[in-house]
Design brief:
- The chain has 336 residues and is of the alpha/beta class.
- Among the domains are: 98 residues, Alpha-Beta Complex (Spore Coat Polysaccharide Biosynthesis Protein SpsA, Chain A); 85 residues, no CATH class.
- 49% of the residues lie in helices and 16% in strands.
- The chain is built from 15 helices and nine strands.
- Strands 1, 2, 3, 4, 5, 6, 7, 8 and 9 form a nine-stranded mixed β-sheet that branches.
- Strand 1, helix 2 and strand 2 form a beta-alpha-beta unit.
- It starts with a helix and ends in a 15-residue tail after the last helix.
């Protein structure tokens, strides 16, 4: 058995008020066939619900589980701190999001894929699911071109080399060589780290064998705030690495300007046309998704799609137009 195949595996779960998911998630992780090697660190950003109690109860009866304070609250800082405090003797890092669902044997599958491909990072596809009608509608949008723009890691069954995907496993030597997560990023920290991994000569493999189930925000306000952060984070990544936005990112970028012009439609209809065409396309595509799925909630997926597009556009443009200053930035708010 190789040293990598016998060394501890650092499993990090950034957490903030996730009492609804933690118990089942920890039980599932600890049932993984490779779990005897796992060191499961829950990096808690100051939960005010029962999340800390749940983790502490697991830690009392299972030495593999550790509760770690994350004073900076955001996910990037939580993972970095867990690596610094608990990852010295580990070869691999597995990142688990508390607000998601995972198939049985998820960790084992990632480790096997890393061994087979020699990848520095193994990323996975993400499939959204919802429970309430708004969440189901958001999930339908996120699973489609309407919400994901054709992103490869939003499709299942397609393995291959890629420049970015949903973070799952990283070799810790590649993670450290790239410098870990940039803690100034509230969102898009995964894509930004992927850019540095690739620049350092690392390779990222998209697994076609396993996928993460993601649960979207369950109300419009939280969904809007999430995508506002996504848009701003994308600008910061592009600016930091002098990259150009992809074509699929340029279309939603036009949403905020189109809506800003719409009131001028009182002067001439041409000013309102772009916003009306966008809204009609979203509503129409959502209706088609609903008919295909025979689901009334999916039929209104155009509404959360419009929220995502608008928030992403505002976040992107606001960050792009912001004057860069030399003074330190204010402390980031915790990512939801």
């Amino acid at each position: 058995m190789s040293e990598a195949a016998s060394s501890p595996v650092l499993v990090v779960i950034p957490c903030l008020n996730e009492e609804a998911h933690l118990d089942g998630l920890l039980r599932q992780i600890l049932r993984d066939p490779a779990a005897e090697r796992f060191r499961v660190v829950v990096a808690d950003g100051g939960s005010t619900d029962s999340s800390r109690r749940i983790v502490s109860e697991f830690a009392r009866v299972d030495r593999r589980v550790v509760l770690l304070d994350n004073p900076q609250k955001i996910q990037s800082a939580g993972v970095n701190r867990a690596v610094a405090v608990h990852g010295a003797d580990c070869e691999h890092l597995i990142r688990i999001d508390a607000h998601a669902g995972y198939p049985h044997g998820y960790g084992s599958s990632l480790l096997a894929t890393a061994e087979r491909t020699g990848a520095d990072s193994v990323v996975v596809s993400m499939v959204s699911e919802g429970f309430g009608c708004f969440q189901k509608a958001a999930a339908a949008a996120q699973n489609s071109v309407l919400g994901a723009g054709g992103s490869r890691h939003r499709k299942t069954g397609e393995g291959g080399w890629i420049d970015h995907g949903h973070h799952a496993l990283m070799r810790l030597d590649a993670y450290r060589r790239a410098g870990g997560y940039d803690e100034s990023f509230v969102a898009n920290e995964d894509a930004e780290l992927d850019a540095r991994i690739v620049q350092a000569g690392g390779r990222i493999w998209l697994s076609g064998e396993t996928a993460v189930t993601y649960y979207p925000r369950s109300d419009a306000r939280r969904l809007f705030r999430q995508y506002l952060n996504y848009g701003a984070g994308r600008v910061r990544t592009l600016r930091k690495h002098r990259l150009k936005p992809k074509a699929r990112q340029m279309l939603p970028l036009a949403v905020a300007p189109a809506l800003a012009l719409a009131p001028l439609g009182l002067l001439h209809p041409v000013f309102a046309a772009p916003a009306l065409l966008w809204a009609a396309a979203c509503v129409g595509y959502g209706l088609l998704l609903g008919l295909k799925a025979r689901d009334a909630c999916a039929a209104v997926s155009g509404v959360p799609a419009m929220i995502m597009h608008l928030a992403w556009s505002i976040g992107f443009l606001r960050e792009a137009l912001r004057v860069r200053r030399s003074v330190p930035a204010p402390a980031a708010a915790p990512a939801e």
